[in-house]
Amino acid sequence: MMAELSRATAGDVQGEIFCYQAMFPNYAGLPEEDPISIYKATSDPDTMYMHQALKQPDAHEFRKAMQKEWDDQLGNGNFSLMRRSEVPEGATILPTVWQMRRKRDIKTREIKKYKARLNIDGSRMKYGQHYDQTYAPVASWNSIRTLLIMSALNNWHTKQIDYVLAFPQAPVEREIYMHIPKGFKIDQGNTQDYVLKLHKNVYGQKQAGRVWNKYLTEKLINKVGFTQSKVDECVFYRGSVMYVLYTDDSILAGPNQDDIDRAIADIQAAGLEITIEGDIQDFLGVNIDRKEDGSIHLTQPHLIDQILEDLKMDENTITRKVPAPSSKLLSRHTDSPDFDHSFNYRSVIGKLNYLEKGSRSDIAYITHQCARFSTCPKKEHGDAVRWLARYLKGTKHKGTILRPDQNKGLEVYVDADFAGNWDPNEYKDRDTARSRHGYYIMYAGCPILWKSQLQNEIALSSTESEYTGLSYALRDAIPIMNLFKEMKEMGLPVTSSKAQVHCKVFEDNSGALEIAKVAKFRPRTKHLNC
How far apart are CA 308 and CA 493, in angstroms? Predict the structure, then answer.
């Protein structure tokens, strides 16, 4: 089969409507289910479709990337050519979608690579015919930060690896056919008379992430000798090596460099094609800077630059010293003017969410407050986002510092207000009566997890609010405790005062502490399930 890149234009590209699975193939859910995870697919100016890329000044670079992608896919046997007349009756021939991307250096923001990815249009796939289950696990930030903290605490070596054309390394799950991609023609007759039969798990399928994860997990366990965590499906152990996987990006860490190198060699020997990227420097868009004193700094200045650009803020913009004014509460503001749509509110909120989850716990409260009103933002909500952006401009290079203290173990700090959002002018909105809690979960003095959220229940007292916050915090703490117990069982050095992993909880409400220690049936607490 021969093919060459024709002089395709935007008008030649049929079916290049928005395809979520193509533009963001590493995420298996639906866009509306997780606005945090999809901001990049919908608002990154360096991610685009073919017809958009061909209008760019560097279109020739994208053409080269398209040809390379086609040659790689063809050379790897990901699909084969067959006549359209030979396709089984009733089979659906799915369209193809090109995802084009400029990959930039995380620090300098200079373009280091042009990437073209050939995808099948997953939006046309039908449940039961083309796929069944789609869920694919990814490592949580809890596990990623735990690995980083352990590395800083014990002076571990780290290596980052990336799986080359990850999804197509796995075989296709079902018989699927797709059109010849736009921009290419064949020398065996009319291109319209031929289709492609998939042999490998090509990007864009709804179940592609799941198929890849199952294939890789089977290889890691049965061929490489890793043991899968029972707490986090994307954490693995082999001897002294701890391995964290996020789709096709992964980190290996351990006290012995030779053990890490042998694990990587065995991964390659198992038939998995990888790129060894050296010591970890950035992961999932977070800049990871390991200092000489052993501490690790997590920052995302490039993402803050994108937020400022979206809000049209330049170097002359006045900065703020705090994330939000303490004298104002955000509510629905039903009588206020609508937001002026001077920027894409939802897109900016998605980026702020990702920034907060990755490295900036200091903006958790105001980010959550602004996100609550994404469906119908008012003038006050837009002003709050702009205030926050000015604060981020002045703290662009700030982030989370992991500086472990060997004298500290697993700790949880919890606090809550009592109906702190109450607004008598919004009496029809029950959310103003909900209390808010926040908590940090830390190990060796370093943050693993943080959260600021409204409680689902309406508390009737400050004691109930604090007790509810305590409950929420410990629900997140228990899986982390289980992860540390598992690490200890695997022989990894976990700091703990006793044989078991213990967790200290800090709470400042005496009533909540009393109820937590000893269940007490009192007139004002009888409705609490202690």
Answer: 42
